[in-house]
Amino acid sequence: xxxxxxxxxxxxxxxxxxxxxxxxxxxxxxxxxxxxxxxxxxxxxxxxxxxxxxxxxxxxxxxxxxxxxxxxxxxxxxxxxxxxxxxxxxxxxxxxxxxxxxxxxxxxxxxxxxxxxxxxxxxxxxxxxxxxxxxxxxxxxxxxxxxxxxxxxxxxxxxxxxxxxxxxxxxxxxxxxxxxxxxxxxxxxxxxxxxxxxxxxxxxxxxxxxxxxxxxxxxxxxxxxxxxxxxxxxxxxxxxxxxxxxxxxxxxxxxxxxxxxxxxxxxxxxxxxxxxxxxxxxxxxxxxxxxxxxxxxxxxxxxxxxxxxxxxxxxxxxxxxxxxxxxxxxxxxxxxxxxxxxxxxxxxxxxxxxxxxxxxxxxxxxxxxxxxxxxxxxxxxxxxxxxxxxxxxxxxxxxxxxxxxxxxxxxxxxxxxxxxxxxxxxxxxxxxxxxxxxxxxxxxxxxxxxxxxxxxxxxxxxxxxxxxxxxxxxxxxx
Length: 478
Known about the structure:
By secondary structure, the protein is an alpha/beta fold. It has helices spanning 2-34, 51-67, 79-104, 109-112, 116-146, 161-172, 213-220, 234-245, 257-261, 286-320, 351-355, 369-376, 384-390, 403-409, 429-432, 441-453, 457-470, and strands at residues 152-157, 178-185, 206-209, 224-227, 250-253, 266-270, 273-277, 326-332, 338-344, 394-396, 425-427.
């Protein structure tokens, strides 16, 4: 069943691409015919004369798509990343199509009238229609997989916080096409993250220990395995991989801290002594100026555009419950210096006087009726654009924590204070990867440190785009 579904998905995607490419070529012909430019439309022959060129165009496109791995399934590929791949593949495919057309139809290109305007129309329309076709195909495929048709049976090795985080990601994203059959317990317990005491309950069974992996794979007909033991020794990881390979399953490994940073390892020397640089700060010099310029521009524009909406929110807060509109809370920012972080008030006035500093949790009884809605869609954080404008925060960076929690975490979490080497952000790499709310602080720290050491302007832009979409779908916003 699964194999048949995989073939159907692949073939239907190929046919969708071909249909969109052919349609784009036909529409390019019609546009050139109906919108003459520099060459009279009468010089263009009937469409049947272009059938051979269209076939070459379609063949060139799907061939380039194959080499760009656009027919290799990538579950975690975002819309932005897929659009970028499509842009590159269509551009290269268009160039190859022109070359092949000029070679095979060199005697008739001028006669038939194959002007550059038609090439440009074809390129733009192919970009648009292929993206639309793939988006529609993806929605249909994910809807079918969410209902279990063609889904992969997934086994998670590690019943720790990381394993549960992966399970929650799969649970809240049924369109990934996974069905979790259970967990394998880490018998040594070496990777359990004890930092976060509010571990989510898991309603899938623990099917055994590491020694039981081959049996579980056979009994449960497992298709894919995720090893969620980031702190496990290398020998143990290799043993687990060896046990999984007996069952001919796909294997993925959740990385440890060094593996996360390894993409930026560089080789240098110290007076002839070779050294590996695995820790560096990406944000310095002109990059820091560029990031600050983007912060000022985006925050200023956002505050101007959203000012009527923010005024409405302020009015609703005053009508909903007694107390101030804004709530200022001390947070730790750059170089661990405190600043006052602004938010729309979402709790009853004086609520924290009763409980003291506590970790945010779902269904917090201290919230007002309006406050629950504001938190669900992160509207309560809009005033932080003021913090960005004045320079206390950045648009993107590690989320700031309260001093009481910073004192607690820095004693138990390796490299936690490295988060404070850059300004705190309204959103961050950890947040767009689902690590917000009641999730592992250790894993958040890894993502924050990775962001600091791998910063780029494009990464900030991607995070901001992801955040915009996640504001409506994030289940950890509370």
